[in-house]
């Protein structure tokens, strides 16, 4: 009977150790993840940071300097949004693998370019050698609302195969701008 009691305790200890291991892995995964924030959360965070800095700003920059700096950054962001048409609504990043020589991160990005919405998912493989760091985009997946247009569909497919984000953003900006002009023109004549 003593062996049965010990076996029950051993089984319970082993189950607890496995649970601790799973919870530890989950905790580490959560620590590595970057969460996406809504505009309201970002504004609350900025206001909280401003209040915190007002209390700690003795001997540092004044609150008016920080406010001016924040307004300048907001103006720059507004200018870039007007210039490019891009407005990013969410971004999340999860580290899939990390070693001394290489890091693999999974990114999810969504936003609008003028009136066209898009979503991207891709993995970024960063490899570090003694002299340089190189980054490669893999497993690119693009979802766009105007995929019914066969030319756009072909373009998106070729970009997904190439994994070329720069070409995607440049082309999307131009296409979306002219798409918006065409849309407004047709609305004018209706």
TrEMBL record:
Residues spanning the signal sequence: none
Coiled-coil residue spans: 6-40
Superkingdom of origin organism: Eukaryota
InterPro entries, per the entry: CENP-P (IPR027801)
Biological process annotations from GO: CENP-A containing chromatin assembly
Keyword annotations from UniProtKB, A to Z: Coiled coil
GO cellular component: chromosome, centromeric region; nucleus
PANTHER family, per database record: CENTROMERE PROTEIN P (PTHR28577)
Name of the protein this chain belongs to: CENPP protein
